[in-house]
Amino acid sequence: MCPPHNYTYSWGPSPTYSAVYVSSQELYQYFKNFRAKHRLEKYIHLQHKVVGATWDGKAWKVQVEEVQTGRLVDAECDILINANGILNNWNWPDIPDLDKFQGKLLHSANWDTTVSLDNKSVGLSSTTHYTPSEKAVFSSSPSTLRALRKLNETSTNCLFGTFVKNSATQHDTRTDLTQQMQSRLNNPQLASAPIPSWSPGCRRLTPGVNYLESLTKPNVQICLGGVRSVTETGVVGPDGAHHDLDVLICAAGFNVSFRPRFPVINEAGTNLQDLWAKDPGCYFGTAVADMPNYILFLGPNCPVGDGPLLPVIETQADYMLKWIDRWQTENNMLFFHPKAAAVD
């Protein structure tokens, strides 16, 4: 979770966010408004995806698929920038017969807001909201909004010590979080399942309001050990018992392997998908050895866990533009990529 006032571009704040934490729809609206304000639509092609890119020694030959028709279009570029992102390629769980389920199948990362919750018990926990007068101050006093954003940044960056491996701060944080989870669950057998074995920071800390408490409610049944298989009407637990379901929600997370989603092949025939199959690595999360004129956002070792990603993206964009400027202005530069020693 990230305060929305820090989930904006540093030079494009929004004074209209409604709460300390907001829904994805409100964040999405910020970026749609940003796109419209800067007239970016003409540079965006929706329902298109890159399915392959090959460097021929002079330029990138790129294949683009028109999703609705399946038609392939050939394109060419001097510099290829991969901005696929990291937390948007969701995984479906590898469970036998998942496709046989006849109820409503949802994924937490691709939520269907049209699903009816009629005749179902639903709990809603609200967050702290900004008052109209507070939002008016944010609009009329940029310095006040800037002070709030800097305070949020300071608070999140203070968490950095938590993510230093084997540090005293990390140990103390893990102890505190474990005690909190055990206290909220108040069930030793149940607490053994959701409390992770890894250190804080291996996954982003995502506090869910009343989530742990909901696991102890009388209308919730916990099936430890995962799902054995799926049927048309429900799931089979590890003990062989069948559980009837109206809706099956999959929260299997994302593919975060950093491997590109399409073949990226250099002049020697090396595919970056193969190169990054086990141990991905690149220069400051931005450029790859032996992949000329190929740069990317949020590459391996780049994401942070103690603050928003947008400042990282801005910094990478500035770095890319400096390289592109050199490439355009220095006549003897045909292509660029980091040396393997620099990456290592």
Spans of at least 5 consecutive residues whose pLDDT stays below 50 are 120-128
Coarse structural class: alpha/beta
Could you tell me the number of beta strands? Answer: 11
Main sheet makeup: 4 strands, mixed
Order of helices and strands: HEEEEEHHHHHEEEEEHEHH
Distance between the termini: 32 Å
Family: Belongs to the FAD-binding monooxygenase family.
Cofactor: FAD
Protein name: FAD/NAD(P)-binding domain-containing protein
InterPro entries: FAD-bind_Monooxygenase_sf (IPR051209), FAD/NAD-bd_sf (IPR036188)
Please tell me about this protein's structure.
The chain is an alpha/beta fold and 344 residues long. Helices cover 27% and strands 13% of the residues. Among the domains are: 45-88 and 256-343, 3-Layer(bba) Sandwich (FAD/NAD(P)-binding domain), CATH 3.50.50; 91-121 and 219-253, no CATH class. Helix 2 packs across helix 3 (142-157). The chain is globular and about 70 Å long. It starts with 23 loop residues before the first helix and ends with a helix. The model is unreliable at 120-128 (pLDDT under 50).
List its traits.
single chain; 344 residues; alpha/beta; FAD/NAD(P)-binding domain; 11 strands; 13% strand; globular; FAD/NAD-bd_sf; FAD/NAD(P)-binding domain-containing protein; FAD-bind_Monooxygenase_sf
In short:
It is built from nine helices and eleven strands.
List the helices and strands and how they pair.
Layout: H1 24-37, E1 48-55, E2 60-66, E3 72-77, E4 80-82, E5 104-107, H2 132-140, H3 142-157, H4 168-185, H5 188-191, H6 211-214, E6 229-230, E7 234-236, E8 242-244, E9 247-250, E10 264-265, H7 272-275, E11 294-296, H8 310-329, H9 340-343
Parallel strand pairs: 1-10, 4-11, 5-9
Antiparallel strand pairs: 1-2, 2-3, 6-7, 7-8
Helix pairs in contact: 2-3
